[in-house]
Amino acid sequence: MPNIVVVGTQWGDEGKGKVVDLLAPHVNVVARFAGGNNAGHTVVVGREKYVLHTIPSGILHPGCRCVIGCGVVVDPGSLIEEMESLVQRGVTLDGNLFISKNAHLIMPYHPALDRASEAKLGKRRIGTTGKGVGPAYVDKAARAGIRMADLLNERLFREKLELNVAQKNRLLREIYDAQTFSVEEILNQYLRYAGWLAPYITDTALLLSRWIDNGYSVLFEGAQATMLDIDHGTYPYITSSSTTAGGAATGTGVPPTRLHGVLGVSKAYTTRVGAGPFPSEMAGPLAEAIRARGHEYGATTGRPRRCGWFDAIVGRYAARINGLDTVALTKLDVLDQCETVKVCVGYRYRGDILTEFPEDENVVTEAEPFYEEVEGWRAPTGGAKNEADLPAKARRYLERLEELIGVPFCLISTGAQREETILCENSPLLRWFPSVRSSLL
Ligand code: IMP
Prior knowledge:
The protein has helices spanning about 15-25, 75-90, 110-120, 135-140, 150, 155-175, 185-195, 205-215, 245-250, 285-295, 310-320, 360-365, 390-405, 430, 435-440; strands at about 5-10, 30, 40-45, 50, 65-70, 75, 95-100, 105, 200, 220, 260-265, 270, 305-310, 310, 325-330, 340-350, 350-355, 370-375, 410-415, 420-425. The protein is α/β, with parallel strands linked by helices. The chain has 2 domains: about 5-100 and about 205-440, Adenylosuccinate Synthetase, Chain A, domain 1; about 105-200, Adenylosuccinate Synthetase, subunit A, domain 2. The strands form 5 sheets. Strands 9-7-5-2-10-1-11-15-19-20 form a 10-stranded mixed β-sheet, sandwiched between helices. Strands 14, 16, 17 and 18 form a 4-stranded mixed β-sheet that branches. A hairpin with a 7-residue loop joins β19 (about 410-415) and β20. α3 (about 110-120) packs parallel to α6 (about 155-175) and α6 crosses α7. The longest helix has 22 residues, at about 155-175. The radius of gyration is 22 Å and the shape is globular. The structure holds inosinic acid (IMP). Inosinic acid binds near residues 38, 40 and 274. Inosinic acid binds near residues 39, 127, 239 and 273.
């Protein structure tokens, strides 16, 4: 049974939640491997809308087991809130949710450090979600972090907490002039969390290995996206984890030799939240129109997303870095009313045309987009059941994107509902999950 990685190919918010939700009935397990509650995966089921921050979207399918891997940083308060809200809506967590013992905890001083550091950066600020994700990964890399397993050992937890609070309080007081924290308050709060979470904390790498041995199929759910990856994104305007396909292995403990394919999720245009270079960014009323039509507001922070045209340089880069086998293209309907649709096919930089994504921050910042323009289709795409139902100009747009990024599409999404999805002819998905055909028709 195939083990497939799902990643975002742009700057996040591509609609990974919807794609994972569509594929979840065809797999046994969905595993999250990176990020924390900075993510916001929106899934619409009938009239119900679910926004999941830490729990994989597979949880909405009875019988689908969900893993929060070691590559994830977990804010236990936020996770418990999410768990309670799912339980209230009838979702069963017991026997379906498993949290890695090695996942690091987001502690109350992490959001405080996140916000204080952003304030100090001034115009170089990253525009983080303020959830403390960056500082939690700092502690992980500094070997000072506190992990899920530590929650289950009060003595060790206290010891690690005392060391951390002493250090962080100094930092907060002396560098940032910010409020400090009390060991006892955090200890009491986190021991209450431990009581809640203990039944779910386990060796998830071992579980995944056994499940795969038994023929289970695992979907690895990425958070954020390629251009926000700590190594391959637009550093330093990135998140702090390995959001690209390689992270699926390190972030769960499943070796790369047991992964069978990578599915990228791209929007038919591009958005970005927070600061940093964005070569194909639109300006003015056009950006506002796309933002309104695409409801482009952050699922976690509510911030308006920056909007831009599809960037084929980014698409091709994501294909290379992730080894994409196929791409699910989302939100095609948002472009339905455009008179013309542009695609960024190169960057102008000091007299040259660049056709590969530059790794140098300064080059990306100065790069001017070079566009190809196609006529808009000006007809609704929502409700199309297959590619042949799409307006001819929309089909040509899709073909051109596939050609530019060099990867075939498997799904085209034209709305938030599960039903508003087209399965592409010869979709590479069918090789992995033949039953997808009957569930989507
Ligand atoms: P952090 O992950 O909160 O540290 O934020 C770092 C950067 O990643 C900021 O530009 C955020 O806006 C961006 N970011 C983090 N999570 C998401 C997400 O789920 N979607 C889109 N952007 C995100």
